[in-house]
Design brief:
By secondary structure, the protein is mainly beta. It has strands spanning about 5-10, 25, 30-35, 40-45, 50-55, 65-70, 70-75, 85-90, 95-100, 110-115, 125, 130-135, 140-145, 150, 155-160, 165-170, 175-180, 185-190, 200-210, 210-220, 225-235, 245-250, 255-260, 265-270, 270-275. The chain has one domain (about 5-275): Neuraminidase, CATH 2.120.10. It contains no helices and 25 strands. The strands form 6 sheets. A 5-stranded antiparallel sheet has the order 18-19-20-21-25, with no helix packed on it.
Length: about 280
């Protein structure tokens, strides 16, 4: 257990140093996948070692987010000079497959921030950090937008935005999150566990005579909305901005993609009791 409840996994990938937005994904087998936006590739890290795969430069340009699927990956990409993003199918060996141009309403100017898979492998497009979510059928490109994430037990959605207190609706449950720093707070959905518990991120912004200060932490709630644990997210140690660095693993642990001057690390964040 390291400082601030961080366990450092031995998964350094210096060749994966990202430039600009990047993303981390993890599957239920403990395989970490880093989206390398600098070298336009995918880095797969397991206990056996690290493998770097470069994507085809003439077809892939600006990478935003990645999810792992049964036969490879889906990548969210934004062509240079375009407001229209697209989803790219990538095989396990990094071969490019189908490309799906997202319809208007899901473009960068519409608030596009990322995507993820739903509980039944639905493709969910995140707008405004998940305040709005589009469930899209890639075969038809038809989509439906909801306020928040449409889980089977109801919507999971932030009810207040940039307020000292955040209200979050989790199905039939509402939780209240106080900003510990006394400033304003932006909260976001990190993920949901099979047992119904869920994890929220809380980004707190305060200002004093020395300037603006940002802190980030994650909160783990049970299905009834009771706070179980929390952990600080080391945003202050991040050398280069990473758009999607925090992932909830199938094991219930939280993982974080950290860039340093020498390498890229995957950190396992240790939950600390809320009591």
């Amino acid at each position: 257990m390291g400082e601030s409840g961080v366990t450092y996994l031995h998964l350094d990938t210096p060749e994966a140093q990202p430039v600009g937005p990047g993303a981390l994904a993890i599957d239920d087998r403990g395989r970490f996948v880093v989206l390398d936006t600098g070298g336009l590739g995918i880095v797969v890290a397991t206990e056996a070692g690290v493998e770097k795969m470069t994507l085809e430069w003439d077809r892939i340009q600006s990478l935003i987010d990645i999810v792992i699927v049964d036969d490879g990956y889906l990548i969210l990409e934004l062509p240079f000079g375009s407001d229209q993003a697209r989803i790219v199918e990538v095989a396990a060996d990094a071969t490019i497959g189908n490309l799906y141009d997202l319809p208007q309403g899901l473009w960068l100017g519409d608030g596009l921030t990322g995507f993820r898979l739903g509980p039944n492998d639905e493709t969910w497009i995140e707008l405004e950090l998940g305040n709005r979510v589009a469930d899209i059928d890639l075969s038809t490109l038809e989509f439906a937008i909801t306020e928040g994430f449409p889980y089977p037990d109801g919507l999971y959605v932030i009810k207040t935005w940039m307020e000292p207190t955040t209200l979050f609706q989790a199905g039939d449950t509402t939780v209240e999150i106080e900003n510990q720093s006394g400033g304003v707070m932006t909260s976001y959905m990190i993920g949901k566990n099979p047992d119904g518990s869920f994890v929220l991120g809380a980004n707190e912004l305060t200002e004093d005579s020395e300037g603006l200060h940002v802190t980030d932490h994650a909160l783990w709630f049970d299905a009834e909305g009771n706070l179980l644990a929390r952990v600080d997210i080391p945003v202050g140690d991040q050398l280069i901005y990473v758009q999607h660095p925090t992932v909830l693993g199938a094991d219930g642990n939280l993982y974080y993609l950290l860039t340093t001057r020498d390498d890229v690390q995957v950190l396992k964040l240790g939950w600390q009791s809320a009591g």
